[in-house]
Amino acid sequence: MKIDRNFNFQFNVSKPKQKNNIVIFFLSTTQKLNDNYSTLADAFSQNLVEIKEINCSGAINYLKVTNNSEKKLLILESEQIIGDAIKQNRVVDSTTLIPEKSTIMLKVSCCEKNRWSPAIANTLSISKSLYFSKGRTSSSVDIFKNQKTDQFKIWDEISDKMKEFKSKSFTGSLEDIYNMKEDNFEEIIKYFKPEENDVGVAIAIGSRLVSLDIFINNNLLKVYLSKIIRSVVLDSYKKNYYQNFINEKNVHKLLRLIEQSEKKMHKTQSGCLGEEIRFNSDQVVGSCLYFENKMLHFSGFLKDDMNIPQFKSKVA
């Protein structure tokens, strides 16, 4: 595997694997890189991380996160923190690496518009899904241009998604849609299994690539793969089933578009580790977190307004 700060990629790209209208390419490498990081879900399940409002009043765009473990804590962009122990559900803005035994103010956005309430219970959990892929793309564009997400746009996107699924949620919670369709998603998720050298995944809906996520090693890919697939399936669910006409060349083309895009260094959050590089062009957008000259997580997206036909012929 090779990936540097200019995003010069060198991966082996698998042949496409398809279930319904979801097409996945696995990116592999024979280079073995270990890590000593806790993921948010694992740390939470072991009571090694504490998440709460920054104070009694709270702030929409921040949560107080304390890493109580002896390992660095990796939190992925678009992870969703949900429950009544915080005033409203939140989605993480950027991939973040928190040092051992430390506390930071995590940048987040609201993904539950109609609730801002004191803790009525002590329930808190990490969603099984990342924020849906179209929303991930949109937030990446806003952060590149303005250093922050557009909260009103996020609320509008969630509202549109609820209308699409004819979902009713008193508080406007995106998580309610995931819960409603969970059984429909699981068959697709179980179909895709990474092999031991796989470290990344490019996902298409029909014949159109949507997202690209790459990790430092196979272990982190396995941890996050189901969450990534769920985020794409939510955008694919209302589309008809079409035969795909996509192959490995399309993935390499996406990688080249990313290499040629404009790059910017963004400051990581106060008290956090690593350096963040964000990229943007008329066609692609995304980010990458580096630490100790290694890429921890890379996320890239093909923009929705790209004039590329999504489908070519329908399966009889």
Key structural traits:
316 residues; alpha+beta; nine-stranded antiparallel beta sheet; six-stranded antiparallel beta sheet; 6 helices; 20 strands
Write structural notes for this entry.
The structure is a single chain. With 316 residues, the protein is of the alpha+beta class. The chain has one domain. The protein has six helices and 20 strands. The chain has helices at 40-45, 133-146, 151-165, 175-191, 218-236, 248-259, and strands at residues 12-13, 17-19, 22-28, 37-39, 49-52, 62-67, 72-75, 79-82, 90-92, 96-98, 102-110, 125-130, 198-205, 208-215, 242-243, 262-266, 275-280, 284-291, 294-302, 313-314. The strands form four sheets. Strands 1, 2, 3, 13, 14, 16, 17, 18 and 19 form a nine-stranded antiparallel sheet that branches. A six-stranded antiparallel sheet has the order 5-6-11-9-8-12. α4 (175-191) crosses α5 (218-236). The longest helix is centred in the last third of the chain and has 19 residues, at 218-236. It is globular, with a radius of gyration of 19 Å. The termini are far apart. Residues 307-316 have low confidence and may be disordered.
List the helices and strands and how they pair.
Elements: E1 12-13, E2 17-19, E3 22-28, E4 37-39, H1 40-45, E5 49-52, E6 62-67, E7 72-75, E8 79-82, E9 90-92, E10 96-98, E11 102-110, E12 125-130, H2 133-146, H3 151-165, H4 175-191, E13 198-205, E14 208-215, H5 218-236, E15 242-243, H6 248-259, E16 262-266, E17 275-280, E18 284-291, E19 294-302, E20 313-314
Parallel strand pairs: 4-7
Antiparallel strand pairs: 1-3, 2-3, 3-13, 5-6, 6-11, 7-10, 8-9, 8-12, 9-11, 13-14, 14-19, 15-20, 16-17, 17-18, 18-19
Helix pairs in contact: 4-5
